[in-house]
Known about the structure:
Number of helices: 4
Oligomer: single chain
Amino acid sequence: xxxxxxxxVRDRGTWLRLFYIVLFAVILNIASAVLAAAVIIQFGFxxxxxxxxxxxxxxxxxxxxxxxDVVLYMTFNTDDRPFPFSEWPGGEVPATRGTRRRxxxxxxxxxxxRARAGRSGGSRARTGKSATGGADSSGExxx
Length: 143
Protein backbone atom coordinates (compact mmCIF):
# COMPACT_ATOMS: atom_id res chain seq x y z
CA UNK A 1 0.00 0.00 0.00
CA UNK A 2 2.82 2.40 0.84
CA UNK A 3 4.40 1.63 -2.53
CA UNK A 4 1.10 2.44 -4.24
CA UNK A 5 0.94 5.82 -2.51
CA UNK A 6 4.54 6.59 -3.52
CA UNK A 7 3.62 5.72 -7.07
CA UNK A 8 0.68 8.15 -7.01
CA VAL A 9 2.82 10.90 -5.47
CA ARG A 10 5.50 10.45 -8.14
CA ASP A 11 2.98 10.50 -11.00
CA ARG A 12 3.91 13.48 -13.17
CA GLY A 13 0.39 13.61 -14.63
CA THR A 14 -1.06 14.41 -11.20
CA TRP A 15 1.41 17.24 -10.66
CA LEU A 16 0.75 18.55 -14.15
CA ARG A 17 -2.96 18.50 -13.32
CA LEU A 18 -2.20 20.63 -10.24
CA PHE A 19 -0.45 23.16 -12.47
CA TYR A 20 -3.54 23.33 -14.71
CA ILE A 21 -5.84 23.61 -11.70
CA VAL A 22 -3.90 26.64 -10.45
CA LEU A 23 -3.86 28.12 -13.96
CA PHE A 24 -7.62 27.66 -14.35
CA ALA A 25 -8.21 29.14 -10.88
CA VAL A 26 -6.53 32.33 -12.11
CA ILE A 27 -8.55 32.19 -15.34
CA LEU A 28 -11.77 31.81 -13.32
CA ASN A 29 -10.95 35.03 -11.47
CA ILE A 30 -10.52 36.81 -14.79
CA ALA A 31 -13.77 35.27 -16.07
CA SER A 32 -15.53 36.56 -12.94
CA ALA A 33 -14.37 40.10 -13.72
CA VAL A 34 -15.56 39.76 -17.34
CA LEU A 35 -18.89 38.40 -16.11
CA ALA A 36 -19.31 41.28 -13.67
CA ALA A 37 -18.65 43.80 -16.45
CA ALA A 38 -21.09 42.02 -18.78
CA VAL A 39 -23.78 42.02 -16.10
CA ILE A 40 -23.39 45.73 -15.44
CA ILE A 41 -23.40 46.60 -19.15
CA GLN A 42 -26.36 44.30 -19.82
CA PHE A 43 -28.29 45.94 -16.99
CA GLY A 44 -27.57 49.30 -18.60
CA PHE A 45 -28.91 48.03 -21.92
CA UNK A 46 -32.11 46.86 -20.28
CA UNK A 47 -32.50 50.18 -18.48
CA UNK A 48 -32.01 52.20 -21.65
CA UNK A 49 -33.71 50.03 -24.26
CA UNK A 50 -35.97 47.67 -22.31
CA UNK A 51 -34.28 44.73 -24.06
CA UNK A 52 -31.16 42.72 -23.27
CA UNK A 53 -28.33 42.96 -25.78
CA UNK A 54 -28.16 39.72 -27.78
CA UNK A 55 -24.37 39.74 -28.04
CA UNK A 56 -23.96 40.16 -24.29
CA UNK A 57 -26.54 37.43 -23.66
CA UNK A 58 -24.56 35.12 -25.95
CA UNK A 59 -21.35 36.02 -24.12
CA UNK A 60 -23.06 35.18 -20.84
CA UNK A 61 -24.21 31.79 -22.15
CA UNK A 62 -20.79 30.83 -23.51
CA UNK A 63 -18.99 32.16 -20.44
CA UNK A 64 -21.32 30.09 -18.23
CA UNK A 65 -20.50 26.99 -20.28
CA UNK A 66 -16.76 27.78 -20.05
CA UNK A 67 -16.92 28.22 -16.27
CA UNK A 68 -18.83 24.93 -15.97
CA ASP A 69 -16.19 23.18 -18.11
CA VAL A 70 -13.40 24.61 -15.93
CA VAL A 71 -15.09 23.53 -12.71
CA LEU A 72 -15.69 20.03 -14.09
CA TYR A 73 -12.00 19.76 -14.99
CA MET A 74 -10.77 21.19 -11.69
CA THR A 75 -12.94 18.78 -9.67
CA PHE A 76 -11.77 15.72 -11.67
CA ASN A 77 -15.19 15.17 -13.24
CA THR A 78 -13.54 15.19 -16.65
CA ASP A 79 -10.04 14.91 -18.05
CA ASP A 80 -10.86 17.17 -21.00
CA ARG A 81 -9.05 20.45 -20.52
CA PRO A 82 -11.24 23.45 -21.31
CA PHE A 83 -10.44 26.39 -23.59
CA PRO A 84 -7.71 27.33 -24.62
CA PHE A 85 -6.80 23.63 -24.83
CA SER A 86 -10.06 22.85 -26.62
CA GLU A 87 -12.58 24.90 -28.60
CA TRP A 88 -14.49 27.76 -26.99
CA PRO A 89 -17.80 26.33 -25.78
CA GLY A 90 -20.98 27.01 -27.72
CA GLY A 91 -23.85 28.93 -26.21
CA GLU A 92 -26.09 25.92 -25.73
CA VAL A 93 -26.73 26.50 -22.03
CA PRO A 94 -30.50 26.33 -21.51
CA ALA A 95 -32.26 29.43 -20.24
CA THR A 96 -33.10 29.27 -16.56
CA ARG A 97 -36.54 29.67 -15.09
CA GLY A 98 -37.50 33.27 -14.64
CA THR A 99 -35.62 34.43 -17.71
CA ARG A 100 -37.77 36.95 -19.46
CA ARG A 101 -37.70 39.12 -22.51
CA ARG A 102 -40.12 41.96 -22.93
CA UNK A 103 -41.31 42.94 -26.33
CA UNK A 104 -42.46 46.33 -25.09
CA UNK A 105 -41.31 48.75 -22.47
CA UNK A 106 -44.32 48.12 -20.22
CA UNK A 107 -44.10 45.77 -17.28
CA UNK A 108 -47.60 44.36 -17.80
CA UNK A 109 -46.45 42.44 -20.89
CA UNK A 110 -43.61 40.65 -19.09
CA UNK A 111 -43.44 36.91 -18.50
CA UNK A 112 -43.73 37.27 -14.75
CA UNK A 113 -46.97 39.23 -15.02
CA ARG A 114 -48.50 36.55 -17.26
CA ALA A 115 -47.29 33.79 -14.95
CA ARG A 116 -48.65 35.56 -11.87
CA ALA A 117 -52.00 36.10 -13.54
CA GLY A 118 -52.13 32.40 -14.48
CA ARG A 119 -51.34 31.22 -10.94
CA SER A 120 -53.74 33.59 -9.22
CA GLY A 121 -56.56 32.90 -11.64
CA GLY A 122 -56.50 36.53 -12.78
CA SER A 123 -57.92 37.66 -16.10
CA ARG A 124 -55.75 37.40 -19.20
CA ALA A 125 -57.78 40.06 -20.97
CA ARG A 126 -55.46 42.68 -19.55
CA THR A 127 -52.39 41.30 -21.38
CA GLY A 128 -54.23 40.13 -24.49
CA LYS A 129 -52.95 36.56 -24.09
CA SER A 130 -55.16 33.50 -24.44
CA ALA A 131 -56.15 31.55 -21.35
CA THR A 132 -54.26 28.50 -22.63
CA GLY A 133 -50.98 30.43 -22.35
CA GLY A 134 -48.53 28.22 -24.23
CA ALA A 135 -44.83 28.91 -24.17
CA ASP A 136 -43.46 32.29 -23.19
CA SER A 137 -40.69 34.05 -25.10
CA SER A 138 -37.99 32.01 -23.38
CA GLY A 139 -39.49 28.81 -24.76
CA GLU A 140 -40.82 27.55 -21.44
CA UNK A 141 -44.42 26.68 -20.81
CA UNK A 142 -46.28 28.94 -18.43
CA UNK A 143 -46.11 27.49 -14.92
